[in-house]
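USER:
Working in pairs, take the chain set out below, taking as long as you need, and write a paragraph about the fold.
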Amino acid sequence: MTVLRSDFNFDLPKELIANYPSAERTKCRMLCLDGNTGELCDRTFIDLKDFLRPGDLLVFNDTKVIPARLYGTKKTGGAVELLIERITGLNTALSHIRASKAPKAGSELFIDGGYVLNVTGRDGDLFMIETADGSSLLDLLDKVGHIPLPPYIEREDEALDKDRYQTVYSKVPGAVAAPTAGLHFDNAQIEELKSLGVNTAFVTLHVGAGTFQPVREDDIVKHHMHKEFVQLPEEVANAVKATHAAGHRVIAVGTTAVRSLESAATYARENGLGEIAPFHNDTSIFIYPGYQYQVVDCLITNFHLPESTLIMLVCAFAGYKNTMHAYHHAVKDKYKFFSYGDCMFITKRTKPMDLPPSA
C-alpha cells in the first residue's frame, strides 16, 4: 500500500498557532468527533464529564518535562545550544547540539552558570555528553536549564511555562516535550471524574524531540519513526483487560498514551500473551491509516501539524475523511492549534475504515 504524505496536508493560518496556554487549564475548547458518524460538536474541556461513563479507564502519561535546553560556549568562545534528548545515567545523556561547527569527542562545553560538560562521542545524529565533575545532570538542568518549548512557539520560555508546559500529574522526569493532551486537566477535574466512577491509570513515555521530526518520505509507509522508551506496568495491563471485560472503554489521554498502549498490545499479540501485557522497552510504532487499533476506544488529543505522524495516527483512529473534515472545521471556527492549543475528544471508528485518496 502507498499512502502519500500530501494527503495529510491542510492550510493553517499562523494566527491559529497558540503561543500561550488558555487562562485556565480546563477552559480550552474541545471539538468532539464521532468516528462512526463523523458528527462534530463544539464544547469546552470542562464538559469532558458529559462524554465519559462510570467504569471508563482514562490512561495518562505521567512523564515529566525536564528543562532540557542549555546555552553556553565552546572553548573557542563560539556559542553552543544543547537540547537533551535522553538522560542515560546520573551524569550522562544524549543531546542535540547546535553550534557553528560540531564539537568533537573530548571537547569541553562551558554552560551558563559555570558548569562544564564533556562531549564523549556520537550516537548517530546525537552527541554523548557527561558532566565534567560527575555530578547529577538533572540537578544541573534544574538550576540552569530552560523549558524546551516546541519550534512552532516563536518566543523564549517564560516563568509560566515551568508550570503550564507540565501536566498536573507529571511524576517521572525525562521528557523534552509535554504530552500535551494532558495539559488541559487540573486536579479538581480529575477528582470529579473519579467521583463519577471513572478510573485512571498511568503509563510513562518520555517524549523526545523526535516527536517534531517531519515526515520526509513522499510515501509515508517508508518513514521510520524515532524511538521512545515506554513503561507500562502490570497493573495498567490488568486494568485495561478488566475494563474491556466489564464492557467499558479505554480512553487514551494523548497520542503518547496511544503509542504506549498499542505497543504493549502488539507485544502481547506477537508473543501469545493475550490482549495486552506489561511493556518496558523502546517503541518505534508508527500508526497510520490501515492500522487496526487493539485496545484504545476513545482519544483525547490536541490538534496536530499538517503532514505529521500524529495527524496520521488520528486519521487511523477516526477515519481519514472524518478527521480531515474535523480539522477543516477547526480552522474555519478558529480553534487554537498545537501544544498550547485546544483539543479533541474522539470515539474510534468501528465501521470499515475509509483510507486516504492515495491508498
